[in-house]
Amino acid sequence: xxxxxxxxxxxxxxxxxxxxxxxxxxxxxxxxxxxxxxxxxxxxxxxxxxxxxxxxxxxxxxxxxxxxxxxxxxxxxxxxxxxxxxxxxxxxxxxxxxxxxxxxxxxxxxxxxxxxxxxxxxxxxxxxxxxxxxxxxxxxxxxxxxxxxxxxxxxxxxxxxxxxxxxxxxxxxxxxxxxxxxxxxxxxxxxxxxxxxxxxxxxxxxxxxxxxxxxxxxxxxxxxxxxxxxxxxxxxxxxxxxxxxxxxxxxxxxxxxxxxxxxxxxxxxxxxxxxxxxxxxxxxxxxxxxxxxxxxxxxxxxxxxxxxxxxxxxxxxxxxxxxxxxxxxxxxxxxxxxxxxxxxxxxxxxxxxxxxxxxxxxxxxxxxxxxxxxxxxxxxxxxxxxxxxxxxxxxxxxxxxxxxxxxxxxxxxxxxxxxxxxxxxxxxxxxxxxxxxxxxxxxxxxxxxxxxxxxxxxxxxxxxxxxxxx
Length: 470
Prior knowledge:
Blueprint: H1 34-60, H2 71-89, H3 93-106, H4 112-126, H5 130-143, H6 150-160, E1 167-171, H7 180-186, E2 193-197, E3 199-200, E4 207-208, H8 222-231, E5 235-239, H9 246-251, E6 256-261, E7 266-273, H10 278-292, E8 298-301, H11 314-324, H12 330-335, H13 347-371, E9 379-383, H14 387-390, H15 392-399, H16 403-408, E10 414-419, H17 425-434, E11 442-446, H18 451-459, E12 464-466
Parallel strand pairs: 1-2, 1-12, 2-5, 5-8, 8-9, 9-10, 10-11, 11-12
Antiparallel strand pairs: 3-4, 6-7
Helix pairs in contact: 2-3, 2-4, 3-4, 4-5, 5-6, 10-13
Organism: Candidatus Manganitrophus noduliformans
Transmembrane segments: 42-62
Keywords: Membrane, Signal, Transmembrane, Transmembrane helix
């Protein structure tokens, strides 16, 4: 006969305090000194432990072989658990999984098991292994229904078990003055995701809120925020720019983009990055690698565009001229003097703008390829002005973004479109169908709290909604 003995929800390093000792009949504890009381209490505790241990040993002797595990091996198990937690917090998920699996295999019936299985489920989730995370969470809730982690485990399982659920997100800023948990609880009935800007571009205080090697760290708070959001049942999407990083342009002026002023007919640097510079591209890749070490659910890029008068850096010009074997001059292109067409733009202008659109699409593709080596499940979103969809030629000229190039590069990216007035959602959906853009690939972002607009957006078939800030 094999008996299964399960210990429920015993957290590490927190044994339950002993129950108060009852006085014997006819005996009053007040006649003893404090020292005598303590001695009698300890003796009583040891006696109870001895008796309980005797009957426990007698019970299990008929179920399984006597345990051979020593106190030393239990200590080794706790040490293994601590090392696993350290690996998890350092985002070394493969190492953490091996440690937690080793504990589960080596210490049957130990209080270690509940913590190890809970942490294993969290590790699978952070590593993007959704089926494994769901499996472990179900096992955990079945094995330890009274665990201290029960509520959080049920929230996590609910989130993972509904992949097709519409995402309704709110934006919370670390600079808002709101406590994050209070803010999210106010939206708990209406939203299931939170978008967090993990950077600050304010003059004199620019930097990021996560550990990064290539940027000033204002505070390493992202892991704490992620855990808070998960505790109340929210997914976490981090906002991080790719061009507007004041800390980088201030520290490395040579990385700045250059804008052409058609009125003054001159060039001047601006507070945006030159993505055509290979050093800048590597810096951005490193920054996103650092971000991907945190157990977030997705990334939202807010500045994936180039204005028509931006991007006139030596790096961009050299790359263009080497590919097309033709020289290019910002004044001539802006004036439309080279091969003017009926729309007032020169043919070289469209060569230049179209090439930049393809460059941006490939830049995002490279970024995704690199990050998905570590986080294959990461959601990606980028915000685009509605004009690139409703007036694609004008949108391409103003932003260097062509949705056909985004699709050509097979970027697995959610397209985020702001919505400013009711009545436009149906037209937007019809236009998207012409590009073969699926509703599940689109998020809408209402720009006001207009009741009619919000109602229309919520009824739409699109996968995600980003609610306006109150």
